[in-house]
Amino acid sequence: MIRAVSMLNLGIATASLAAVLAISGAAHAGECPAAQMRPDARAGGETMPKGVTDTELSSLPLAGQIQGLDGRRLRLRRLVIQPGGVVPWHSHADRPALIMTLSGAITEYRSTCAVGIDHPKGDVAREQTGYAHWWKNNGKVPAVLIAADIKNDGAPPDGDHM
After folding, report:
1. Rounded to whole angstroms, how far apart are CA atoms 110 and 132?
2. pLDDT of residue 142
3. 135: helix, strand or coil
4. pTM > 0.85
5. Which of the 8 DSSP states describes residue 139?
6. 29, 72, 104, 138: least CB-packed within 10 angstroms?
7. From CA 63, how far away is CA 68, in angstroms rounded?
8. What is the pLDDT of residue 7?
9. Distance CA 146, CA 123 (A)
10. Intervals of the chain under pLDDT 50
11. Phi, psi at 147, each rounded to 5°
12. What is 31-152's CATH number?
């Protein structure tokens, strides 16, 4: 009986490790090639949303969860960007995010990169202070993204993309 439980625990641990490794293998976002990085690579981009839906799936107020985060919430959103669709120019000052491409592909145009950065299915992009960007679906199928971010509900919009 004890051996069976130990084998079960070992199986669960192995499956968990395999899942973490599978996720972490896909979790490195496309990055700007070093030769294309510069602070002023792009001054702007598309300014109007096109062919995109942004649905908030859930959120959690962070007041009382983590000291100093009153007025902020952790939220999870689903974005669907149609072929040719655009998430317009915006920044992530005061609103860090992780974006996972669930299906399709999306191209990011970042202020600090002279070329577009492709994010295929399984990719996770990190969005943070220090640059602005916009996204476009250059493919033939909808791109479906899951976004987790910390939203400061008291902050003015940053060229709010939606």
Report:
1. 6
2. 98
3. strand
4. no
5. S
6. 138
7. 8
8. 40
9. 11
10. 1-28, 159-162
11. -120, 130
12. 2.60.120.10
Q: Tell me, what amino acid is at 154? A: G
State the Cα–Cα distance between residues 1 and 25, nearest whole angstrom: 36
Cα angle 35, 109, 114 (rounded to 5 degrees) comes to 25
For residue 2, which amino acid is it?
I
3 state DSSP class of 43: coil
C-alpha radius of gyration, the chain, whole number: 19
Q: Which tokens sit at 38? A: 């510069």
What is the predicted pLDDT for the residue at 155?
A: 75
pLDDT in tens, 63-89: 989 898 999 999 999 999 999 999 999
Strand segments, DSSP code E, in 48-131 are 50-61, 72-91, 97-103, 105-110, 117-120, 124-127
User: Using CB atoms within 10 A of its CB, is residue 78 exposed (0-12), middle (13-18) or buried (19+)?
Assistant: middle
